[in-house]
Amino acid sequence: MLLSNKRALVTGASRGIGAAIARTLAAEGADVAITYEKSAELAAGVVREIEALGRRGTAIQADSADATAVRASVEKAVAFLGGIDILVNNAGIFHMGPVKDAALADIDAILNVNVRAPVIASQAAILHLGQGGRIIHIGSWFAEQVQWPGLSIYAMSKSALASFTKGLARELGPEGITVNLVQPGAIDTDMNPAAGPLSELIRQPIAVGKYGSGEDIAHAVAFLASAKAQYITGTALTVDGGMLA
Ligand code: NDP
User: Fold this and answer.
1) Nearest CA-CA partner of 221 in 52, 32, 14
2) Residue identifier of the C-alpha nearest atom 6 of ligand 1
3) Residue 137's closest CA among 47, 234, 72, 42?
4) What is the pLDDT of residues 147-170, one digit of tens each?
5) Could you give the residue numbers annotated as active site?
6) Residue 22: CA count within 13 A, CB half-sphere
7) SS3 assignment, position 122
8) What's the per-residue H, E or C state across 55-72?
9) What is the pTM of this model?
10) Domains in the chain: ranges and CATH
């Protein structure tokens, strides 16, 4: 197993990519705390799946838009797990529409959840991470190419994670902590359903011709979280079925 007895916190893991990451880290031997905003029952289901894999799990309600709640969620995870080795900043929200029409509340929500929360969670986790620690952000292929109009604000929020990843990797490298970014392509979740109204358009540029699954992202995260990835830091791994090829 890649992650025997490691302790991980995955944000936004009641469903979708985060839930797949939580299950996969547990299957690789980690105890896993997750956060969610609204889906308490789904989050409890993910915890049961972690436990069924023989690992400890807990679900923490924490709105990523709330800085105090984000900080507290890291402390609660550390208390439950007895420390932390891996932080996965996965929680994110999508926004689509022309910049001229974007409401201030929507701009604030995107920046707070997609950018500020990963910074705050990292800041809180750094106090507890030791040698071999891992921070992994979940970005988006839109940070590399904004293929269609209406994605400016969301894409900006994800490209912010790329430079944050590089800077933080330099800060934490001397302490033996790596920081990386995984950039999913089109992954079949509630956010981007493979049978949704835009899915035919989205599928066209994908080299392998189909959507990916949460597990496709989760396996990349598990590898980057493992000791095998000790020399990989400050970089982005795009997992997109060749969308950008
Ligand atoms: P989903 O919308 O399917 O799931 C989002 C998850 O994040 C849920 O568990 C949700 O919790 C949680 N979440 C949302 N907002 C908050 C919040 N304010 N506070 C705490 N938790 C929150 O998204 P995906 O699984 O598709 O996306 C996961 C990540 O991957 C995001 O960062 C997204 O931007 C990124 N991504 C996704 C792609 C895709 O094609 N699906 C492509 C590229 C990037 P709850 O259930 O409680 O609402």
Assistant:
1) 32
2) 12
3) 234
4) 999 999 999 999 999 999 999 999
5) 154
6) 34
7) helix
8) CCEEEEECCCCCHHHHHH
9) 0.99
10) 7-239 (3.40.50.720)
